[in-house]
């Protein structure tokens, strides 16, 4: 007994000074396991060992996107989150401008990139297993030692304006942004992620430095590491490179409540580069954590996933439209169920809308054949499960669930629950959300010759 007590006492100081603690573990549908750890400074680690190949995928996720910056009293504008994504590649005193990409490329990295969206910003790359410490070195360095000056800021601002022009030249991108501006009245989802020219020109290096020091702190960050590594090795490196970082106070934004939509909205615009009509039809739905998400995913699959889907058969195969998709967007806050249509040249958009409305009415009436329900669920699950063979996609599913719903398990929960969706479930969500009163229709058509 004395020996046991002595052993317990000896262990207490170790536990008290542990820098990283295991929170919980999760078995994934692909046979892998997520090990969640939390560091003393608040940084979260999601470690997913996978020895199927001598590689790993390194993803850094930050819980800040365009929606947050719009509500920050020190910013009140949109576009800096995306602009800052560009700045993260511009070097530090240890790793000068251009050397970050060079070091990763020389190490054999693939898939190096970053994205910004409403609720998050993420950075990612995949490397050979023996380059794990290099990834920790480079990513932790730019997370705390980024070089911010007027010259680099203006350079990247110019690059963003170039990207903005490219997006404005794409009819589908313009239609998507215009739909969100139409559908939302007060929520910051209505603002374009990339910002507007006026807002972008008003940002300063001081704004960028505030944004960096506030939102790129360890207690607002998650490292998702997947691949061929040992957990003790990853924790040791995390404590070495991220452990010294100090947590910061993250602003707690009060998001405005979007008013209940009681009548349909519609907007018609033109685009000089459009060759046929683009239709974006959005229906107000809850956020990702709502329990109706599996049924809405099944509805999307029934409508537009696979050659046997209703809209594929009645629109694409009949040459009325060139393409069609349907799915719930599933963001942190109230979202949209989006039906996106590219009309075939010369075809009337009214014909496509009639088919879509008829299909939705059938679902609201519960007139879904059992074989169609099973096909939709099988197609959805097969598509999602097949993607879980890819490390990067597994990481993306974990990350999106985390930043959108504070639960990295969420996307996998939805995937599992889709198999239990019934016709009654589809009918219920269609009657609750997929109604004309909750709809917003954006039609983009080719501009007359000579009109810009």
Structure commentary:
With 452 residues, the chain is of the alpha+beta class. It has two domains: 18-241, Metalloenzyme, LuxS/M16 peptidase-like (Cytochrome Bc1 Complex, Chain A, domain 1); 265-446, Cytochrome Bc1 Complex, Chain A, domain 1, CATH 3.30.830.10. Helix content is 44%, strand content 20%. The protein has 17 helices and twelve strands. It has helices at 2-16, 66-71, 80-87, 99-106, 132-144, 150-168, 171-183, 197-202, 205-215, 231-241, 293-304, 310-316, 349-364, 370-387, 391-405, 410-417, 423-433; strands spanning 20-27, 33-39, 44-49, 55-62, 110-116, 121-128, 221-227, 265-271, 278-285, 321-328, 335-343, 439-446. The protein has a seven-stranded mixed β-sheet with strand order 1-2-3-7-4-6-5, sandwiched between helices. A hairpin with a 6-residue loop joins strand 10 and strand 11 (335-343). Helix 5 (132-144) runs parallel beside helix 10, helix 11 (293-304) packs across helix 17 (423-433) and helix 12 (310-316) packs antiparallel against helix 13 (349-364). The protein is globular and about 60 Å long. Residues 1-18 have low confidence and may be disordered.
Task: Describe the structure concisely.
This protein is an alpha+beta fold. The chain is 44% helix and 20% strand.
